[in-house]
């Protein structure tokens, strides 16, 4: 599944980044950054409630496909601007983590 599919078919909001054709190979959800760094993989869709600068560093370092912010959690414009500068794709959705996993799982992403 491409990142843009979440926007086009599932109503996710595009916050930052331009690489919407990027393929999502797996999905991970965790808010402990050291744990994400240890467990994250290339082309991951990372679901987190965190919205600070450090998530951008982790996503860039591990070359994640995107960061997904669930439950309509607000992201400050400063973070969105920094994500754009770094080329990090960020999406947001009103969905809860379980519902996001369901969409990705049904698309064959595990």
From TrEMBL:
Domain of life: Bacteria
Protein name: AraC family transcriptional regulator
């Amino acid at each position: 599944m491409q990142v843009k599919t979440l926007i086009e078919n599932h109503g996710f909001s595009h916050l930052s980044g331009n690489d919407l054709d990027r393929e999502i190979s797996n999905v991970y959800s965790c808010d402990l950054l050291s744990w994400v760094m240890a467990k994250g993989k290339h082309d991951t869709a990372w679901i987190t409630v965190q919205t600070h600068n450090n998530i951008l560093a982790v996503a860039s370092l591990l070359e994640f496909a995107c960061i997904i912010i669930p439950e309509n959690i607000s992201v400050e414009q400063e973070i969105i601007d920094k994500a754009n500068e770094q080329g990090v794709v960020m999406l947001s959705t009103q969905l809860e983590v379980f519902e996001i996993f369901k969409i990705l799982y049904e698309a064959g992403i595990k």
